[in-house]
Specification:
Helix content of chain A: 40-55%
Shape of chain A: elongated
Low-confidence stretches of chain A: none
Number of strands of chain A: 15
Number of domains of chain A: 2
Number of helices of chain A: 12
CATH topology of the largest domain in chain A: TIM Barrel
Oligomer: homodimer
CATH class of the largest domain in chain A: Alpha Beta
Largest sheet of chain A: 8 strands, parallel
Structural class of chain A: alpha/beta
Distance between the termini of chain A: 15 Å
CATH architecture of the largest domain in chain A: Alpha-Beta Barrel
Mean pLDDT of chain A: 93
CATH superfamily of the largest domain in chain A: Dihydropteroate synthase-like
Strand content of chain A: 15-25%
Largest interface: A-B, 98 and 98 residues
Strand order of the largest sheet of chain A: 8-7-6-5-4-3-10-9
Order of helices and strands of chain A: EEEHEHEHEHEHHEHEHEHEHEHEEEH
Radius of gyration of chain A: 23 Å
């Protein structure tokens, strides 16, 4: 079904990462991070190619050593999406990354705690016109802040504020902020607190979310609560798994609240003792056979007469199962009854014939 | 990390389903629905056994025909958790289900639209002391209500209200309500509206959520927003997939917000170019080797020195990877440095030795 409910986004400033905008009225972007050794340029570029195919908007790579930093220019030349360098302890790597032409930096204020180093990085980034994300993380807080505030939402916000004061003194305004924690509630409260006080664009993420199922749930819940309040301009789902899966989950999160759509949306019933057709297998096949489509349509795959006709009619095209047969619906009207073995092809034919809305 | 943020639940009445409580201060329960033909008693009982092992609290079965209705007594005798009969078009099946001794009924007000039938069901349920869920679903709304309100949150609430008036006239108060839609935003708004007006316990669900990844995301986002507001007394995740997975996701949702815990919680980093150990494989192994435990402990599995030591110390027991080695932490202190090949066993030994908190 189409939603009659629309979310209002909080107003934030806008920054430019390569040719991708973050904040303001720009679409909320999906990011991920490579899991290869960055200095292994071929492996890193290959992984970035995979996530680009999955429609990742911006990609980040770890820069833990000078060799990784010096690989960034070559990586950037070989890829199609903006590249972000993730910097922790060593300010020198940030300066090299900027020289190498990256499109954005991420700095962890818990790990670079020297104002003069931050000032140098800001000056170099400003000269090249690239933005910096202040990426606070509960797992690597400034010890003084942790001592004073504990592992709380306030501590995360305080860490960002301290860094922002340095950025302000350096007259650097091209800032994105994140306030990640592995506990979704701590994370949500930190973003709420911060967004009441500042209009910098926000990068959402639940850090160390965990293995795919738990990580997906924690990320979807945490980001869901924030997006529902209009908070969030870009996001990265962290999973202990494939970065392509991080991108897929990121898109699923945006699509669930109608914030962005990447192609067909499939509504499928969970199946139960009422179903006379194998809905689970059928829905999987429809998903597989339509994943190349870029049309933003809704497809319903339903098992029985309880919610089947209703959901099928509310979708652009639908299939509602019966006893060894299926009803095909198009724009709310039943147009055809077909035997079970022809259902999939009949549905796909209707989907193919449908113009993009 | 432990959360410093706690959610307050809205106050609701309490009902009893077998020996399981829903509402009031009872823990939020996890439900699922079987996908077998209910009248195939062996298959249905076998599936209920699987979901019971996964700690499902309450199970529902479809009752689309008289044979299914007459199988309920035998199914109930063979299982350990409360049994709910899902009734749509035929009031007679509801009466048979009650006679058969089910612990709760679910009625779809969009599909039984005759007040006298509802009155008879209420009388029989009251005599046996079993509660009824008024299960509104956007896919099967009363046509008059759909005509007047469209597919909106207001339509879902109006459908529940109409049914509640009939229940009130029948002096039946043992009610649970659900207001499901496949669109998470419509669903959230309906529950928000309803819970501002009534204190009946609420059963949460995003209907026809879809294939496992999308369905998990839609359910976690929808339920996440509601639980964050203190709404929800029991839940069922609908996935086009295995009911055991529905139970796993349901638990993951409750655990993510600290509302209930079923055993060890694993915090794992997503891995990146910094990691010198294979975090993904290691976290999977830790998950597999600890899934039998009932201790509510936190385990951190981290790849490098950025957030590793911080997260590991914030967990009850942790492993933080380095170059071919790992640091084992216990209650915030590093207690051991072990070579990579001994890491998993050393971590598991610490987990085993830990008392339940």
């Amino acid at each position: 079904m189409q939603s009659s409910v629309f979310l209002r986004r909080r107003k934030t400033r806008q920054v430019k990462v390569g040719d991708v905008l973050i904040g303001g009225d720009a679409p909320i972007t999906v990011q991920t991070m490579t899991k290869t050794k960055t200095e292994d340029i071929d492996a890193t570029v290959a992984q970035i190619y995979e996530v680009t195919k999955a429609r990742c908007d911006i990609v980040r790579v770890a820069v833990p050593n000078e060799k990784a930093a010096r690989s960034l220019g070559e990586i950037r030349r070989q890829i199609q999406i903006p590249l972000v360098a993730d910097i922790h302890f060593n300010a020198k790597f940030a300066l090299i990354a900027i020289e190498q032409g990256v499109d954005k930096l991420r700095l962890n204020p818990g790990n670079i705690r020297d104002e003069s180093k931050v000032r140098n990085i800001c000056a170099a980034a400003k000269e090249r016109g690239i933005p910096i994300r202040i990426g606070v993380n509960a797992g690597s807080l400034d010890p003084d802040i942790k001592e004073k505030f504990g592992l709380t939402p306030e501590a995360l916000v305080e860490s960002a504020k301290k860094e922002l004061r340095w950025f302000e003194k350096a007259k650097f305004e091209d800032v994105v902020v994140s306030l990640k924690a592995s506990d979704p509630l701590t994370c949500i409260k930190a973003y709420e607190l911060f967004s009441q006080q500042f209009d910098f664009p926000l990068h959402l993420g639940i850090t160390e979310a965990g293995l795919p199922r738990d990580g997906t749930v924690r990320s979807a819940m945490g980001m869901g609560v924030m997006l529902y309040q209009g908070i969030g301009d870009t996001l990265r789902v962290s999973l202990t798994g494939d970065p392509v899966e991080e991108v897929e989950v990121g898109w699923a999160i945006l699509e669930a609240f109608g914030l962005r759509q990447r192609g067909p949306k499939i509504i499928a019933c969970p199946s139960c003792g009422r179903a006379d057709i194998d809905i689970i297998a059928l829905a999987e096949k429809v998903k597989e056979r339509t994943k190349h489509l870029t049309k933003n349509i809704q497809i319903a795959v339903m098992g029985c007469e309880v919610n089947g006709p209703g959901e099928a009619k509310a979708a652009d095209v639908g299939l509602s199962g019966g006893k060894h047969c299926g009803l095909i619906t198009l724009n709310g009207e039943i147009i055809k009854k077909v035997p079970e073995e022809e259902m999939l092809d009949a549905l796909l034919a209707q989907i193919e014939a449908l113009p993009a809305p």
